[in-house]
Amino acid sequence: MVDVLDFMNSIDQVEKLPGFTPGMNQLVDLGSGELDLDEGTSRQIAGFFQGASVRAKLGSDYKLAFVAPRPVDFGLARMHEFHAMEGLEAQGVEMRVFYSLEQAKQ
Asked: Which residue from 42, 69, 76, 99 has the highest number of Cβ atoms inside 10 Å of its Cβ?
């Protein structure tokens, strides 16, 4: 089960990777675990991405793709996409949810 804290911690670790560059496109594959997401945690994750410290680390003008192959996870991720895009579009961040890795890579 992927919970909100694990998710935010993993995104926070991305910027510590040696090859990371602010503004780099990111892909989150939810295919190996179930997504524990409701409206409250969706808003919490959206706030995380909109926070000044995360924006400074991750940059702006990048794409964030979620792969959610199971219908229930896809629906939950789409709910998150709706909440998150309220503030991310203004920062030049494009976020989309896909059923497959192949779709997300296009």
From this structure: 76
Helices (H) and strands (E) in the chain, counts: 5, 3
Instruction: Check whether 35 has a pLDDT greater than 70.
Output: no
> Whole-prediction pTM value?
0.75
- Number of C-beta neighbours around residue 51 at 10 A: 12
Pair 81, 42: CB distance under 8 Å? no
Closest to 30 (Cα-Cα) out of 58, 72, 63: 72
At 69-90, the pLDDT tens digits run: 989 888 888 887 877 777 677 7
**What is the number of other CB atoms lying within 10 angstroms of the CB of residue 46?**
20
User: Cα(12)–Cα(4) distance, rounded to whole angstroms?
Assistant: 12
CA dist., res. 101 & res. 98, Å (int): 7
Strand partners, 65: 27, 96
Q: Can you tell me whether residue 70 is helix, strand or coil?
A: coil
